[in-house]
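Quick check before the chapter quiz. The format below is the same one you will see on the exam, so make sure you can read both the input and the output lines.
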Amino acid sequence: MNFLQLAFDESLLAVGISRPNPAVGAVVVKDGIVVGKGRTQRPGNAHAEVMALRDAGENARGAAIFVTLEPCCHYGRTPPCTKAIIEAGIAEVYFAHADPNPLVRGKSRKILEEAGIKVFEGLEACEKAVAEESWDDVCGDEGCKVLSGPVDPAASRAESRAESRMLFHEIERFFEAYDYFVRNKATFVEIKSAVSQEGVIGTLLADGSRAPLKITAQGANCWNHELRAMSDAVLVGAGTLLADNPGLDVRFARGNNPVKILWAGHRTFSAPEIAGLRFFDCTDASADSRLVFSCVEQPNIQGIEVILLPHATFAENWKEMLANLACRGMHRLMVEPGARLAAALFECGGWNRLDLWQSSDAAVDRSLESSGLSGIPYPELPHGVVARESFMIGPDVLTVYEKS
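Here is the expected output.
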């Protein structure tokens, strides 16, 4: 068990609640036991560290606190977390990610160390956050020691370091949108797409409309839902909404549902269409959990905010929308586009990362061919993109692209 993993799990439950503040998680540990946990509350309320310290109470004295982000050390809408940590009598602080905010970065560590507190950060913190498991924790009885055979300490430590590195990179990836927001005052745009072995993204019906095409397996789907849980909002275009009728919620991961955004473009939605689309069903959610950006009036959309885009070009309107989201304090926008929206984004450059899944299962293309229907090809990637990493989950390969 890694205590920073527990803190990271807490942080995911703060996404969408804490903005414009970063979603942070914290746990307080004493004698190897978690005695307090917390996550950042709504702006003006307690940060993760304070929530965890409150939860721990007197047990915080002499304990360690594990935090996903460097504790704040300045007065804003709330007092500094470093002050609360010192007053609680914490002995050790472990934080995974350095805050890019110049009011905080590096200063918190100095304040805490001057107060006599040991501080560990980054990868070192993740490696030291691993709980030491006793035989009783692992086996539960004396006989298990014999049945399990000898344990190789070197192999165990190597495995632990590998898991700690993975956690560190996961937390770094989580906060990169916050880093981008702080440095650029702009929302980080991450595109997620999936194509078949032959590069097909969807099915074209005889009447010219689009039908969904199941491409990825469950492992990739779980990864995609983890990205949704990390995102402030998820956006689809009108074509994808009509063809797939997606729920756009988080089902296969821990976390909150993102704000759902429709890029309506120049399409006016009719009352019958609205009645049949899950996007417009606010029965189980507040209307402010949805936004519509449109180039035309939408007289049939009721109870959901519609933002009219005034410009003549896609690029100008997309920039206008991103400025609107930044003003709302949104750090990461996940885009799940169809072929047309993806092509428009590639042309205008209004994105930061592309997560492109490709199935290695030829059955997807064979089923399309046997049906006699045409596939919709994914647009050609823009010139100059760089593949940063690639890995496989089940039959699907994920390649992560960024602009050079």
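If your answer matched, good. The chain has a mean pLDDT of 90.
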